[in-house]
Batch of 2 targets.
Target 1
Amino acid sequence: MRFLKELGQTDPLNIGRQLHGFAAELYPICRSITGDGIRRTLAMIQSRIPLQITEVPTGTSVFDWTVPEEWNIRNAYIKDAHGKHIVDFHQSNLHVMNYSTPVHATMSLNELKAHLYALPERPDWIPYRTSYYQQNWGFCLSHKQMLALGEGDYEVCIDSSLEDGHLAYGECYLPGSSTDEVLISCHVCHPSLANDNLSGLTVTAALADLLSGKSLRYSYRFLFIPGTIGAITWLARNRENVGRICHGLVLTGIGDAGGFHYKKSRQGYAEIDQAVTHVLRDCGEPSEILEFSPYGYDERQYCSPGFNLPVGCLMRSVWGTYPEYHTSADNLDFIQPLQLGRSLRVCAGVVDVLEENRRYRNLNPYCEPQLGKRGLYRSTGGEAIATEINARLWALNLSDGAHSLLDIAERSGLPFATISDAAELLCQSGLLAPIPSGATFAGRDGRLQTDLDKAQQIRGSHKVATLD
Amino acid sequence: MRFLKELGQTDPLNIGRQLHGFAAELYPICRSITGDGIRRTLAMIQSRIPLQITEVPTGTSVFDWTVPEEWNIRNAYIKDAHGKHIVDFHQSNLHVMNYSTPVHATMSLNELKAHLYALPERPDWIPYRTSYYQQNWGFCLSHKQMLALGEGDYEVCIDSSLEDGHLAYGECYLPGSSTDEVLISCHVCHPSLANDNLSGLTVTAALADLLSGKSLRYSYRFLFIPGTIGAITWLARNRENVGRICHGLVLTGIGDAGGFHYKKSRQGYAEIDQAVTHVLRDCGEPSEILEFSPYGYDERQYCSPGFNLPVGCLMRSVWGTYPEYHTSADNLDFIQPLQLGRSLRVCAGVVDVLEENRRYRNLNPYCEPQLGKRGLYRSTGGEAIATEINARLWALNLSDGAHSLLDIAERSGLPFATISDAAELLCQSGLLAPIPSGATFAGRDGRLQTDLDKAQQIRGSHKVATLD
Amino acid sequence: MRFLKELGQTDPLNIGRQLHGFAAELYPICRSITGDGIRRTLAMIQSRIPLQITEVPTGTSVFDWTVPEEWNIRNAYIKDAHGKHIVDFHQSNLHVMNYSTPVHATMSLNELKAHLYALPERPDWIPYRTSYYQQNWGFCLSHKQMLALGEGDYEVCIDSSLEDGHLAYGECYLPGSSTDEVLISCHVCHPSLANDNLSGLTVTAALADLLSGKSLRYSYRFLFIPGTIGAITWLARNRENVGRICHGLVLTGIGDAGGFHYKKSRQGYAEIDQAVTHVLRDCGEPSEILEFSPYGYDERQYCSPGFNLPVGCLMRSVWGTYPEYHTSADNLDFIQPLQLGRSLRVCAGVVDVLEENRRYRNLNPYCEPQLGKRGLYRSTGGEAIATEINARLWALNLSDGAHSLLDIAERSGLPFATISDAAELLCQSGLLAPIPSGATFAGRDGRLQTDLDKAQQIRGSHKVATLD
């Protein structure tokens, strides 16, 4: 558990404060799926980790979609008849519906109201609204502001532009000894919203920083992309290489005070699902595993049936289930340094498991090897054995080519690190040998594990026919 | 959900009253597995739906069985020494053991008692007894009648005949666009017993009436047959065509006040099992799913190992578990119009699911298609999505050739109709295309669904070797 | 259930008293993994059942191990400065660490203490300790004895020898009509410890005695061996024939007052696992089924990945979980005649199930055969059917080549004996025929049984590729 150990040198609160500090720098920027806000954001990430930035021109076809016009905004306000600024973009970039077309006009309250969005049940908060693909303009304001609007004419101004330009995304690629890839993806298109998704952005960047320059088994690809259209664009441009992705995670909403939620990949039994489940079980915080569903973040695209990549989504509180979601209350107070730091630790733990998870072959498969003569057993018989010795017995017994270390950890109930340490020691003693990577086998939870393992292993070798 | 909608125009109580009225007409007839009682019954069904009646001669070999002599009865009584009618067939046809041989004799109470059947624990009720295959005669009477019998001689008379004749059954075949068949079977051999099985008979006839003259995907075959020997006779005469049956239901005991019970087919994972389970889940009444067992109604024959057809059994209260079962208390008051009407609705719902359940192919399987430009998405981003949109995402994501709409409904937790509507809309938009019928895949319940789906799909393509 | 019936003639308490009497004869002997103690033990077993004794020379290579020097001991004591015997081997053979090297010396209390073992938390009990493979000597004594040791010099004497010799084990082979084998294994290397494992030894010997001279379907092999090295030695010498073992049990710790525990084989779904689970379910005592783990008794060797034999372990209280384990408190009072007798009954029940468990073919698979004309059904219709008739319907319905009688017993919820009796009767009536032995199918528990059966049957025909 190399990266977890490296992180362990520092208090998670200290690390989390750095992450929170970075989030605070990024918070004021008005981001969208295109435009200068996201460019500034990518540049700030690039100052911390090696990042290749790609600009894709407006009008480019990406599967069923088209890269849209680039949106930029300079100013926006609503003034009342007395010239008083009622709503001002410079106070909060949430005030303007994202992708609003330019407008400068005077109109009655009634006309204006068709373009106003508020949350009656949360009278102090400004909602976050977008209209990327349907030309429209609008203002978001607190319900209190809405109530204060008297009859009369209002001057509305949105000084924005929608023009041919580019969609930008950032990519940090860390080559490992294998071209098999681990994908970590976060969306970076939301304006002043902290949990959704400066939390995911900062944790992703910190994870890339942690792995950067290290000797790695897998190659790692960190994507900082606009949600939906960014993932679709990246997939369209990298369609041929997507098969390299062995494991993937979407990181989002990972800084709030809630416990962890992991939404499984569409495959549902992938190694990433097994790895995250295992790490969360021992992380010391409450956690819940959710079945895959096709609504959510960019796992929607990675797990579309044509790709069906093993990509899950790690969150704390689930989008849409907390009132602050997509409002001005998802601010810098809503995300907490300690939670950010702990989220990074979980991610590092997942990387450690993926890096170390292998299948081994028992080189003495007939009866137990004599561990005692190798100093790997207790010397006085009759007493109970230690966990470390138990882990060696498990690693020997299940290293039959069918079980990975994660499978053994699950079946034995022992932590992955204990099993992994045992396997390493047994390798050094010539009792186990790693099996070269190739087809991997997924294990499964609970008491039916054995039977389901079998069912899954069969699945592995006898692919279900699907149409394409 | 075409047929459910058509039924929905009428209050289930009104429909149920019609069903109950038909049951009341049929109730007085003394039916048996052969004879004029069943002929009159079939004729009355034939006046409502197109029915082909088959007469199979006594002595015909049907697998391990032989069509028995035809039984008819005109009169039966027990008179005491004073000439008083103690028991009279014309008061209740249950008084005579069904298939009693003719007898006319005078005998002592002691001799008579060997031929009397009563229910001490239910002193007012007459039991229902039969002796089809062992020549015998007997009277069934209430325990109170039994107790009132004094010493002395009794005149017993059963004016019945057992002669070469025929076994009659009725068949209503509604051709659909495919020769693949749905089988609906009910037994029509019981005399004055209402729930068992005038309830099944009337609901089956009403379902046939509902589907008659309509454009159908499947062909439907409704069997009105004597229990056991009727099903065996039909199977023996149709052995070559039985492979056309894709889905089947035995309907019985479906008019009492109890909740639904569905006994799964021997296969246990057939589409009919999945469909009925799904419909019952949303039917608004309590319901319970029972594992297959080899005792019961004619599913015993359809699910014998040589056929192993996907035929389940839909009931309300389970035979043998309620005291009125097989007694004179299973009368017209025991079945309720509202329950009959609701049972018909459930059957119509099952037909709707079978008719509409298909697998589809996502024609844009790489990433989500852009629903917004087709008017299939919300226009303002940032808010939650409606159930209808969620259903579209599910239908797109799982239309990979392996999942049927029922599978998608189960996995998403959404009603079948919502998923089916979504699929239809997506077809109209050119995003989905139906996959021609052929091998179907069954889904499964609960959290293990994914794994078991796989196991089952494997089963589909790699048949388990069985001996024959 | 032939052997269970034979045992049933005698009160289990009476049989248990005989077993306890034999344990009492064996109790005083100082056994070890080699030496005269085990020879005397094997000779006493040989006086009761036919036993072939094998002596394997010191130095023989057995897989990763080597047969050790033979250990014998004549005397051992600790004397204080006054010549008083503080610790005396003749009072309890547990006082000497098993396999202690010879020593005769005078030393200070401090020097001595490095060689003393006691249990502070159980001040009256002597622990059991061994040092087979690391040359050492030691004394085990009660904590009270330990506390009573004053400062001063002590004379220590262990009159033992470690010399070239032999490792002895006993084997009772009862040939059956098939060379397919059932293996029953117990370790016989522990000195004065009653539950671990005179209980297993005496029950194994009694089971062999019960089966001896009888006509048997399987061949039975009873192993009386030193733990670990004995099993390894036997496996090394019989490597070529191990494939004959179809079912196996390790019997240990089977005489104490606790309920039964069965640790499943590594396969986890073997017929032995199914059989023991079924027998325990109906045994009238509490029981628990444990998943396989690689620590325990000689199932460790039989279930090593190279062999992966279907061998489970039947116990009462689980080793290591009760305080008396591996101490002088595991004495003749700790094992109870009634428990020994009942344990033998469970073993006999398992043998009965294995002997009788077969798959049958329904010779009338199309519809039910007419049981009534063969006197196998009730004669009066309308009433409930008896359990015996229900068992016949189950046996007919599931005798499709895929289900064994055990599978049918599990799926029907009826006792194995009821299903087995039904199958025998149906065979006599020409309705079923046994399928010649060959690949067997395992069933499985609970509501997912059907699906998992399928998964497992698939597994049977499509072997998972493993490396070797």
Note: The two ends of chain C are 40 Å apart (CA to CA).
Target 2
Amino acid sequence: MPFADILKAVVNGTEGALGALVVGVDGIPVEEYSVSGDVDLQSMTVEYSTLLKEIEKGSQAAQLGTTKEVTVIADKAMIMLRRLNDEYFMVLIIRPDGNFGKGRFLLRMSVPKLLSEF
Amino acid sequence: MPFADILKAVVNGTEGALGALVVGVDGIPVEEYSVSGDVDLQSMTVEYSTLLKEIEKGSQAAQLGTTKEVTVIADKAMIMLRRLNDEYFMVLIIRPDGNFGKGRFLLRMSVPKLLSEF
């Protein structure tokens, strides 16, 4: 299944989801699917991909091993980042009143599907 | 209820919890309760408090408002950070096989209790 279809299935299956992306650890998006123009997914992703690297450094420093998933709950959105491999991660952005648990489930389920496309 | 008792209730109520702390945004712990010597809570907390500031900057830059909660799932532990106010946050560290949802629930429930002690 192409990246775009996998992302679309995650976004459409999660109540309140605004969009999803596959992003390189350098912050450059590979594929993007969004249902709302309210949120600037790309600028948000550049910010958070930097953070992912910082978090990774923090996890290594604290001897916790590789970071698999990061969730940030802010006033205006919930952002989930899920590692795909050393080079890429997936991002899902949900409204604060959206279905956090469903989004997390679908994000996890889509990792093997995305990896099979690499 | 004193800080230590509130932290103890969260840790003992969460299956697989290793410890909990109240920490200043400068990374200096105010109170700490841990059930395991396996994890160096304080050094971990210093790492993650730096991250919280970075995440906050990222959220502001992406116009998502204030960060309320951050979760990091790494190979060897799950770490939850929950904002108390502008100066302090709470940290809960759980084993990878621990009860993530219960921990998150108890962490959230304990915020007003902790704030009433300030």
Note: Chain B has a mean pLDDT of 86.
